[in-house]
Design a protein that fits this description.
Radius of gyration: 20 Å
Number of helices: 12
Helix content: 40-55%
CATH superfamily of the largest domain: Aminoglycoside phosphotransferase (APH), C-terminal lobe
Shape: globular
Strand content: 5-15%
Strand order of the largest sheet: 1-2-3-5-4
Largest sheet: 5 strands, antiparallel
Length: about 350
């Protein structure tokens, strides 16, 4: 582990043995590579990976960011629903143990796909994997927040307005240089809010790389990385998930320019229709979908700007964070083109 993310095993190991069933024995901890937000570690007991530890990063953090406590609560609420999650086992808010709050969950052994093109898979396998992702996000949005005990997980206000305000604030807090498209969006989003009132559980970062798939089937074992979850509008969650249809492969890890039919991957319209079928509604109207996509890319640009700030401050989890975050301006430009009515806008 890099020094900035090394854990004090002298303090951590006794805590694990005292709070996590099955954590007796010789314990080894290894940080997972990648990731831009909360450092995540594999915990092996007697040489076998059994748990995952997820913590806040060190240093001064933006308000409400890196909320591992929220991840712990929402995954506890979903553990016995149709939504596949790694079962949370223990939460530690004592800063004396590893320096920041953290929680421990079960280890889901399976496959993780970083590239949405799913290289190495057959067309049939890709189709099945995309259909499974569609099923799972529909399952998340199908959970009744009150029945799951998390109706208070987000305020009962306009989610689109709250998101625009929140990510404007986060962007301002991490701004390093002016981005013209962000300034325009900061004005456009409140003025064009569609005023939807739907309230469901939303993941907030539902991407193919935030899912662990079974090794022998197109089945999601666990949806991970719930730090941005809340009660909100499922259309916003869906738009965030579907940004890959507007982004190019490579640095942006998207699908633009690929022969989707040959790959077995559905196009954007087909994926939207299948989601609507599963949730029992109609596909979103053009104006609502435009707004949801513009907001999704605005939020992504704000997150990337936060990565730039953390990289400059020296506490980003991924060593490539600075280069990743510097793409904030291009993402903001795409958001503004969509907002202005370019329904086919993509970023190559």
């Amino acid at each position: 582990m890099a020094d900035a993310h090394a854990l004090d095993l002298g303090r951590l190991v006794p805590w694990l043995r005292g709070n996590v069933p099955g954590a007796q024995g010789e314990i080894m901890v290894e940080k997972f590579p990648g990731g831009q937000s909360n450092p995540t570690y594999a915990v092996a007991v007697d040489g076998v990976r059994r748990f995952v530890l997820r913590k806040k990063p060190p240093g001064v953090l933006l308000p409400s960011a890196h909320a591992v406590e929220r991840e712990y609560r929402i995954t506890r609420a979903l553990a016995d629903t149709d939504v596949p999650v790694a079962r949370p086992l223990a939460l530690c808010e004592d800063l004396e143990v590893v320096g920041t709050p953290f929680f421990v969950m079960t280890y889901a052994a399976g496959r993780n796909f970083w590239d949405p093109r799913l290289p190495g898979q057959t067309a049939a396998a890709r189709a099945a994997i995309y259909d499974e992702m569609n099923r799972v996000i529909a399952a998340i949005h199908g959970v009744d927040p009150a029945a799951a005990g998390v109706d208070d997980f987000g305020p009962p206000d306009d989610y689109f307005a709250r998101q625009a305000k929140r990510w404007t604030k986060q962007y301002r807090a991490s701004e390093t240089q002016p981005i013209e498209a962000m300034e325009r969006l900061i004005e456009w989003l409140p003025a064009n809010n569609p005023g939807r009132t739907v309230r469901r559980i939303v993941h907030g970062d539902f991407r193919n790389d935030n899912m662990i798939f079974a090794g022998d089937a197109p089945r999601v074992l666990a949806v991970i990385d719930w730090e941005l979850s809340t009660i909100g509008d499922p259309l916003a969650d869906l738009a965030g998930h579907m940004m890959i249809w507007r982004l190019a492969p490579g640095d942006h890890r998207g699908l633009v320019g690929e022969d989707l039919a040959a790959l077995g991957i559905p196009d954007e319209a087909s994926y939207l229709r299948r989601y609507a079928e599963r949730t029992g509604g109609a596909p979103p109207g053009a104006a609502e979908w435009r707004y949801a996509l513009a907001l999704a890319f605005f939020r992504d640009a704000a997150i990337r700007q936060g990565i730039v700030r953390r990289a400059l401050d020296g506490n980003a989890s991924n060593p490539q964070a600075l280069a990743f975050g510097e793409r904030a301006s291009a993402i903001a430009g795409l958001a503004w083109r969509i907002a202005q009515g370019d329904t086919d806008a993509t970023l190559g």
